[in-house]
């Protein structure tokens, strides 16, 4: 059986209600994937919710190379916000008949990570994935909905970027990876939507990172793609998840996307 890992993030998660158009379409698209004989894993972010909770506490968000700087107080907010997002996403998908199970990376060390470096505090590096945990859930016919709160060897929580977590899971499962955010494509000129690229290979991506053409929040996305491809994932695709039936239409090449090739 083939596997597909889908990451949902950015402003695709602005509306978490049971009647969210994004989540209604996503439930249908994921059900179609399952009906086609695919194992499916959904990984979500929660940037808007994290930012809102930090602001409510009078804390500022700061980023280095597109990754959130995470001190202890920020980690608490990240954990709370992502737990809330996980429950809301699961509730909305379940209401539409999709059999889901919410998980965090701390459950049975699903995502075992280590601190990325002093500049990022408790932000986690690319994690080791507890494939047996996912296998158990998938064999029960369920769709794991994964919050990217990871854990380190001491049992401390880490903030693992959702793109990074999705890339690691796709690598562990040898799965197709689809990254849904609020942009259509990788751009050769970051601020110019007309420079979107339909296909890029690893060498092109690495050159664009070096030149600065890939920057900020796009950097963890392309690094997730590189990690997944390097570990044997068959394909990686980036698409705009705010569009109707974004997952279905991206896989069917009906909308503008970027495919990353080895």
Reading side by side through the largest sheet, how are the strands ordered? 5-8-2-1-11-13-14-12
On the 0-100 scale, what is the average pLDDT? Answer: 94
How far apart are the termini?
Answer: 22 Å
Could you give the count of β-strands?
A: 14
| Element-level helix/strand string | EHEHEEHEEEHEEEHEEHHEHE
- State the helical fraction: 25-40%
**Rg from alpha-carbon coordinates:** 17 Å
**Residue windows where pLDDT falls under 50 for at least 5 positions:** none
The main sheet comes to:
8 strands, mixed
Q: Hey, roughly how much beta strand do the residues contain? A: 15-25%
**Tally of separate helices:** 8
- Sheet/helix structural class: alpha/beta
Q: How would you describe the shape? A: globular
Written overview of the protein:
The longest helix is centred in the N-terminal third of the chain and has 24 residues, at 72-95. With 262 residues, the chain is α/β, with parallel strands linked by helices. A hairpin with a 5-residue loop joins strand 9 (149-151) and strand 10. The mean pLDDT is 94. The chain has helices at residues 21-35, 47-56, 72-95, 131-139, 162-173, 202-211, 218-230, 246-251, and strands at 3-8, 39-44, 63-64, 67-68, 100-104, 111-112, 128-129, 143-147, 149-151, 157-159, 176-181, 199-201, 236-240, 258-261. The strands form 4 sheets. Strands 5-8-2-1-11-13-14-12 form an 8-stranded mixed β-sheet, sandwiched between helices. A two-stranded antiparallel ribbon has the order 3-4. A two-stranded antiparallel sheet has the order 6-7.
